[in-house]
Amino acid sequence: MLTMQKVFISSDHAGIELRLVIKLYLDGLGYIVEDYGCVESSVAVDYPDYVQNVVNCVINNTLGFGILICGTGIGMSIVANRHKKIRAALCYNVEVAKLAREHNNANILCLAARYINYEEAQSIVYKFLTTKFSEGRHVQRIAKIDNCL
């Protein structure tokens, strides 16, 4: 882990429990966690409303990563990826999280609260945050993505 690395995290109502577990896990690993998620799981909210703060923080803090959590992870990833400089990846296992970082230099991890358990989520988060971008041929590919927006 990088010293004083920040993680910006948010969720809608479906992701509150997983968000709190991940936040506690990251605190234990020594990350600085800024939480922008909703607070009431019994009141349905609109997931797009909980993406923008994390996106802004990641864009303005190049050493930080974002984590967005909703029921499927799909909605959050769609909204996040509409922003330039954001490469949000919906990861459902450790290998996909590793490849998202190595090949895509993903800077936001999206998780599906309804489809992964806490232990899987913690392993995915750890792999995502500790894997470095492999650069090489992938730099050109990311530049092409950035030019699309």
TrEMBL record:
<feature type="active site" description="Proton acceptor">
    <location>
        <position position="70"/>
    </location>
</feature>
<dbReference type="GO" id="GO:0004751">
    <property type="term" value="F:ribose-5-phosphate isomerase activity"/>
</dbReference>
<feature type="binding site">
    <location>
        <position position="137"/>
    </location>
    <ligand>
        <name>D-ribulose 5-phosphate</name>
    </ligand>
</feature>
<feature type="binding site">
    <location>
        <position position="114"/>
    </location>
    <ligand>
        <name>D-ribulose 5-phosphate</name>
    </ligand>
</feature>
<feature type="binding site">
    <location>
        <position position="141"/>
    </location>
    <ligand>
        <name>D-ribulose 5-phosphate</name>
    </ligand>
</feature>
<keyword id="KW-0413">Isomerase</keyword>
<dbReference type="GO" id="GO:0009052">
    <property type="term" value="P:pentose-phosphate shunt, non-oxidative branch"/>
</dbReference>
<feature type="binding site">
    <location>
        <begin position="71"/>
        <end position="75"/>
    </location>
    <ligand>
        <name>D-ribulose 5-phosphate</name>
    </ligand>
</feature>
<dbReference type="InterPro" id="IPR036569">
    <property type="entry name" value="RpiB_LacA_LacB_sf"/>
</dbReference>
<dbReference type="InterPro" id="IPR003500">
    <property type="entry name" value="RpiB_LacA_LacB"/>
</dbReference>
<dbReference type="Pfam" id="PF02502">
    <property type="entry name" value="LacAB_rpiB"/>
</dbReference>
<feature type="transmembrane region" description="Helical">
    <location>
        <begin position="58"/>
        <end position="80"/>
    </location>
</feature>
<keyword id="KW-1133">Transmembrane helix</keyword>
<protein>
    <submittedName>
        <fullName>Ribose 5-phosphate isomerase</fullName>
    </submittedName>
</protein>
<feature type="binding site">
    <location>
        <position position="104"/>
    </location>
    <ligand>
        <name>D-ribulose 5-phosphate</name>
    </ligand>
</feature>
<dbReference type="InterPro" id="IPR004785">
    <property type="entry name" value="RpiB"/>
</dbReference>
<feature type="binding site">
    <location>
        <begin position="12"/>
        <end position="13"/>
    </location>
    <ligand>
        <name>D-ribulose 5-phosphate</name>
    </ligand>
</feature>
<comment type="similarity">
    <text>Belongs to the LacAB/RpiB family.</text>
</comment>
<keyword id="KW-0812">Transmembrane</keyword>
<keyword id="KW-0472">Membrane</keyword>
<feature type="active site" description="Proton donor">
    <location>
        <position position="103"/>
    </location>
</feature>
<dbReference type="GO" id="GO:0019316">
    <property type="term" value="P:D-allose catabolic process"/>
</dbReference>
